Structures are given as C-alpha cells and as structure tokens.
Amino acid sequence: MDGHLTASQVEAYRHAGFHYPLEIMWAGEAARHVASLEAIESSNGPMHYRVKPYLVMTSAWEIATNTRLLDAIESVLGPDILLWDCSYVIKEANNESYVSWHQDLTYWGLAMETDDDLVSAWVALTPATQANGAMQFVRGSHSGGTFAHQDTYAVNNILHRGQTIVDDFAPATVTQSELAPGQASLHHGWTVHSSGPNGTGSRRIGIVMNYLKPSVRQVVGEFESATLVRGNDRYGNFKTEPICETDFAPANVAFQLDMERRKRDVYDSA
User: Fold this and answer.
1) Cα 125 from Cα 105, distance rounded (Å)
2) Which one of 15, 92, 96, 97 is most buried, by most CB atoms within 10 A?
C-alpha cells in the first residue's frame, strides 16, 4: 500500500509544521519490534537515546527503512533521502522524565540550503497518549524563526543539555499528537515541540528518525555519517555507514560508538 502524502496533507504539514497520524505498520508488527527491543535490552542494557541504533539493531533498521514511512518522507523531501540519525525515546512507567519545549535545529549543527531540507518521523511502538507523555507541537512555530533557548541541565529533562525555550506558548496553539502502535507523526526541524512525563503503569516506547536531503552539511565538529535510503547522493557530505545485517556486529558497534561520541561533541558545541 502506497504511503505517499496527498497534496493537501503536504500543504497541511508545511502550514502547521507537523502531520499525524500516518499508518506505518500494523499493531502486531509494532508489538514484534517492542519484543525485539526488550530482548536486546535484557542483554545489552538500555537503548533509550542511544545514537543511531539502526547501525546495530536489525529491528531499528527495518523501521527506519519502512517503505510506507519513506514514501511519506519522499513527499516532503523529494526522491533523494539520507537517514541521518535515530533514537529510541522510552519513558518508563510512573516516571518523571520529560522533554522541554525546544527546536531541534538549534543544536544539531546542520547547514541547509532551505529550512525544508530535514524532516523527523516519530513512530509509536506502544500507545502514545497525553497520560504517558505523547509529543505536543506548537502549530506554525517552524515559520517563526529561532526562539531563544536556555540550557537548564534539569535532572528529569531527557534532552542532552536540558535546553528549554524561554517563551511561553498560548494553549490554543498546542496540539497533542496521540498515536496508536504503528502510527507515526512527522515534524519540521524548526517546529517547537515537547512531551510530558509518563504517569501510567506501562512503558511508553517510540523511535524517532531524522531524514535529510543529501545537500545538508554538518558544520560543527569533525564529521558525521548518514545512510542513503532512497534515491541518489550527489554531494557526499556524510561518511558512509555500514549496513546492519546482524544485531550488534562488532564492526558496527565500534562505528556506532564513534558516531555517538562525535554527535555528543556536536550537542555540546552547537
């Protein structure tokens, strides 16, 4: 089944700065990915916010290259698509962890030809609800320029620096993006978003992927890597990544750890 967005859906995305829900996979398939994740966590430790898990986990690679998901990304970015980053975002049961209001591109160190050269996809593997900390977006905020952020390093803030937008937002502009397992949302790199704590008795598990046009460059730190997942790359701005064929292959693990170190350096410097 084709996953491309309609013209009206693309227009709505460009107007609001986000779009949801997208039907990416069946609920049973999402449950299979949860089981795979939790089996890996039992032997390899927590995967929450590990950089580029698609390099070391076949399940994460499968989600990131899901055909219906890439069709939707193509509707926004065009035919040439790089998978630049990915992470599991997991909120444990009855946990106070949250994500403050922020704009992603303020600390990713990327130079783009236009503001529309990046799109993030958030896939729910378990239900994402207001009660367990689903994402919320500020409509139209991607067209308002860069908002002033401050680093808080708050203990329960999931973000690396606890970066938080100084301004407040009118409740009427905020949209809660509740998702069922297997559904996804897309959001623009400048869209202001956040998520609250998980006040329920179950884990809330999602995985977010960041896709770029190949013309994008990293301008902070040494270099970064990315994988071409559709079309062609005429620029070569990112180091080529090894494809994950088996879980935690030693060469892939070493590469992932190096990229994780480099990306943390960018987050600290941008």
Assistant:
1) 25
2) 97
